[in-house]
Amino acid sequence: xxxxxxxxxxxxxxxxxxxxxxxxxxxxxxxxxxxxxxxxxxxxxxxxxxxxxxxxxxxxxxxxxxxxxxxxxxxxxxxxxxxxxxxxxxxxxxxxxxxxxxxxxxxxxxxxxxxxxxxxxxxxxxxxxxxxxxxxxxxxxxxxxxxxxxxxxxxxxxxxxxxxxxxxxxxxxxxxxxxxxxxxxxxxxxxxxxxxxxxxxxxxxxxxxxxxxxxxxxxxxxxxxxxxxxxxxx
Length: 234
Known about the structure:
Blueprint: E1 3-8, H1 10-14, H2 27-30, H3 33-36, H4 39-44, H5 46-62, H6 67-74, E2 80-85, H7 91-94, E3 100-102, E4 105-112, E5 124-126, E6 145-149, H8 159-166, E7 171-175, E8 196-200, E9 213-216, H9 220-233
């Protein structure tokens, strides 16, 4: 069975009503990055950071997987599918995708806010509902729980794992990513020479991806619907 790898970004979830970070009126226009998405922000104003991610979690819980999420799940009947996502929502999982790697974390999980915890010993706590509270929710080490989200300035623990998967891809689909966030955007350069590669985005351009990629200048749902028929009939 061929290995099909999906690399999804914020545009994937935008059609489910989840705010993006970089588009007009996106999240970063309403909040300064340094106030809500850095370890320094947590050290300085944990209440603000917790409130920001509580609201994001509440929005995500109210959202539903869209057609693109659902069609990717259906591709599992035809290919060995792995999803590598920049998104912190769990819409891929809720659509039925079995193998999902979250490069930037999963907002439905929490972890200790104690610094310098090594990846091997890190423990994740499922969040019941949308709210984490500083006065109630603690890790086993006694530290307040923080969102399982990779903040600016932090390492991306799953990056090497994602690289390994991309290097084995027979089919690689980039969908809904501006490819502006590094190091994860560098994954597009790790596909093998034989790989069929596609870039789905309304602004898809070879200025962002190598010539090996076929451009599909459509939204996530439109692009995957078009590609789904092509892939299962080839």
